[in-house]
Sequence to fold (301 residues):
Amino acid sequence: MRTVDIRVPATSANLGPGFDALGLALSLHDDVEATLTEERGVHVTVEGEGAGEVPLGEGHLVVRAMRETFGRMGVAQPEGIRLRCRNRIPHARGLGSSSAAVCAGILAARALAEAEFSDDDVLALATEMEGHPDNVAPCLAGGLTVAWSDHTGAPHMVKLVPDQRVRPVVVVPSTRLSTEAARGLLPKDVPHKDASFNAGRAALLIAALTQRPERGLLLAATEDRLHQHYRAPAMPDSVDLVERLRAVGVPAVVSGAGPTVLAFSTSDTQDLIAPEVGNDWHIQLMDVDPVGANVQFPETR
Fold:
């Protein structure tokens, strides 16, 4: 038997104006222990988020990602796979749980097969399975990432280092929302002035997060006109919370496709967040994960 341990972080994509481009890795992780066995079949155990809900066989997303990766590497599928998943990333909340599972499966297969599969290959396959690179990029690389696709459709990313004063706060509701449902509310076209507005705010956000994470700059830099208000009918409570937080000066956005709200805590906003949040929400102060996905073999821990 051969075993590998994979730790993958939660991520928040978009960050307001950086729709489908910006992503941030967070200090909340899923741990996956993957073992290739001589016993035929797939055996999955899940602790924490998703326990009792997700498939425990071939349909499990980590298993599917492993199978796809073995195939892409030209490696024979193993007789048996055993997974032990300790999940902390909430599902269907806009914190990249599916991206984390996909990345964990791809990295586990690469490590266990010991075959040639470059980091670019990993990013490309993860993007293909997820449909977009904005969550998988920070999950793989950590920190703040800018992701894009070139004229051939191949994804790329650049990793940036946020200022150490950046403190994300996630406010997680009990309700869920699928990415597909949220994307279905977006219009096919947007006004040119709104696209121009977001381009400027996304550039400002990168400067604010990496150099000057000040309340005023972050508040202006997290303004968005491309996706949040279009998605409001699917998550009215989330958008209402974003608006209330911003009204008292807290830089707040919808995390990814929602319904989690992401706020940036500064020294003069820390006491402003909790009073705006009701009992149906869970507030958690986090750090930025600077490393991203981590692969270890048990004997090297």
In short: Residues 57 and 176 are 24 Å apart (CA to CA). The chain has a mean pLDDT of 94. The radius of gyration is 19 Å.
